[in-house]
Specification:
Number of helices: 11
Radius of gyration: 22 Å
Distance between the termini: 12 Å
Strand order of the largest sheet: 6-10-11-1-12-13
Order of helices and strands: EHEEEEHEHHHHEHHEEHHEHEEE
Largest sheet: 6 strands, mixed
Structural class: alpha/beta
CATH architecture of the domain at 94-268: Up-down Bundle
CATH class of the domain at 94-268: Mainly Alpha
Shape: globular
CATH topology of the domain at 94-268: Glutathione S-transferase Yfyf (Class Pi), Chain A, domain 2
């Protein structure tokens, strides 16, 4: 589906609504109040669609002074996690370049989201590990203040090692599923030699023991996957430090499309892919390559200021003007 119209017409708002309606949260707004029309007390996104052989309906109600209300097929959900488990949506927006050029924490967060989508049974692993590290850090600070003993750290250290090893394994598997797809898609879009690699080893009890005095002094755990990174490169160049903005955009786009392809293979269903302003920095050849990639069993919504910018015939073309979609 192609959404086209002038800047400020509401194309990105429509994409945002699709993301809110299928995932329960916005890919760009941090607070619900930022998604509610000025002068209104509440907002709502209601969607109907098909899922495999069946259908689904979602309803997300946003209020300035009340918790967000999310429903799936008429059932009220206590959180958005169930919605994200049932419906998969991937998104590219210009601010997602932070996945490549941002701090390692941004890439870790991206990778843990990918793990939760690719391996639903391990969806809570990142949060469980972070909670264990938080408990160990609190214990380290108590030891530093003389309120506890080093022996009391033992159970939390064991949990950090166990969960950390599982998390490293899951992240490594996810990178393995994405890496060849990422390289191929990036190459098709003109970024040669693109590669992904996971940087970090599983924590061990010996690692934590060797760092114990330093950890007590600082009050933080200095070994484990909460400090690891995902290296994104092209022809041996780290794109974070040595990639142009155009190369970084292609890398993020290739990550999104690689994950969509991996999800199709693993769960047998095509995720919804939202591509906002993806054509603006692609030349004609790369736009054509992207159109060919999207034609391969994709379920994609693309925004652009001009319908002519997309070099293929979309399944559906919608003109967006302020207050109207036709």
């Amino acid at each position: 589906m192609l959404l086209h119209g002038p800047n400020g017409a509401g194309k990105t708002n429509l994409l945002e609504a699709l993301h809110v309606g299928t995932q329960g949260f916005s890919p760009r707004a941090r607070r619900d109040t930022q998604m509610i029309r000025f002068g209104s007390a509440a907002g709502r996104v209601a969607l109907e669609g098909s899922l495999g052989e069946g259908a689904f309906e979602t309803d997300v109600v946003l209020a300035s002074r009340e918790p967000r209300r999310v429903s799936l097929n008429g059932e009220h959900l206590g959180s958005s996690e169930r919605l994200r488990h049932e419906l998969t949506t991937l998104v590219f927006t210009p601010d997602r370049l932070a996945v490549v050029k941002g701090a390692p924490a941004t890439r870790r967060a991206y990778l843990d989201r990918a793990v939760s989508r690719l391996f639903p049974a391990r969806a809570t692993l990142g949060n469980d590990y972070a909670a264990a590290v938080g408990q160990r850090n609190a214990g380290l600070r108590r030891v530093r203040l003389g309120q506890s003993t080093r022996d009391a750290l033992g159970p939390w250290s064991e949990r950090v090692v166990a969960l950390g090893s599982e998390l490293v394994e899951a992240r490594t598997e996810a990178v393995g599923l994405l890496s060849s797809r990422f390289a191929g898609i990036a190459a098709a879009l003109g970024l040669a030699g693109a590669a992904l690699s996971y940087e970090g080893d599983s924590p061990t009890q010996e690692d934590l023991d060797a760092r114990l005095e330093t950890d007590v002094e600082r009050g933080t755990t200095s070994a484990g996957p909460h400090l690891h990174d995902l290296r994104i490169e092209a022809s041996g160049r780290d794109l974070r430090a040595y990639g142009s903005q155009g190369e970084q955009r292609i890398a993020v786009l290739a990550l999104v499309l690689a994950e969509a392809d991996a999800l199709r293979d693993r769960v047998g269903r095509t995720p919804l892919v939202l591509l906002d302003d993806v054509l603006s920095e692609l030349d004609e050849g790369r736009r054509r390559s992207l159109a060919e990639l999207l034609a391969l069993d994709a379920q994609t919504v693309v925004t652009t200021t001009s319908a002519a910018a997309f070099p293929d015939e979309p399944a559906q073309s919608l003109a967006v003007t302020p207050g109207e979609v036709r």
